[in-house]
């Protein structure tokens, strides 16, 4: 991951900060310092090769912040106060994956993978992260027809429902609360029988391993 790359491990103090900004502004690391431009190009090349990436970013211990793609940032933005930054610090050098959440600017379903950046002396100097969008996957699930009145569910391994085409209001709710009959069976066997609303369904579970995001597709 980026955290082990020399250009990241030796990151300096030239990344722009936005903690004292008073209005929304467009970040332009592609036109920033030489260090910012190199880091932005690195993130850009990686993101272009991995279409599922929504954002790739670096934050430093002094509050510097760089993000691909170039986007607007809110006033008084301090990356060190964000949950993903704190999660990475708590990970003590190990990669950390967040639970799914909704992106405030786009309403996309995102899952973040973050890790602390250590310099050559072993000191923590920041955090690097990647946000993967589940929206294309969820949209594909929503648009897929299952024969004989069946349905799909997209479920995270923490049993959070990411997509339920039949009941969109169930997004981000617990599988156990909404479909306890499925919850009690789906993670124990790949094929199962379940009764819902007086109807019998034959279900199966398909693990979606892209990016190791812990997402399953349940077909009933």
List keywords for this structure.
elongated, 5-stranded antiparallel β-sheet, 31% strand, 220 residues, 21% helix
Our estimate of the beta-strand percent is 25-35%
Q: What's the helix-strand series?
A: HEHEEEHEEEEHEEHHEEE
Mean pLDDT: 85
- Give the radius of gyration: 20 Å
Name the shape in a single word: elongated
Number of helices: 6
Kindly state the number of beta strands. 13
Contiguous low-pLDDT stretches (5 residues minimum) are none
Helix content: 10-25%
Please give the largest β-sheet: 6 strands, antiparallel
Our measurement of the CA-to-CA distance between the termini, rounded to an integer number of angstroms, reads 37 Å
User: Structural class of the secondary elements?
Assistant: alpha+beta
Architecture overview:
With 220 residues, the protein is α+β, with helices and mostly antiparallel strands. It is 21% helix and 31% strand. Strands 2, 3, 5, 6, 7 and 8 form a six-stranded antiparallel beta sheet that branches. It has a five-stranded antiparallel beta sheet with strand order 10-9-13-12-11. Strands 1-4 form a two-stranded antiparallel sheet. The longest helix is centred in the first third of the chain and has 16 residues, at 34-49. The two termini are 37 Å apart. The model has no long low-confidence stretch (mean pLDDT 85).
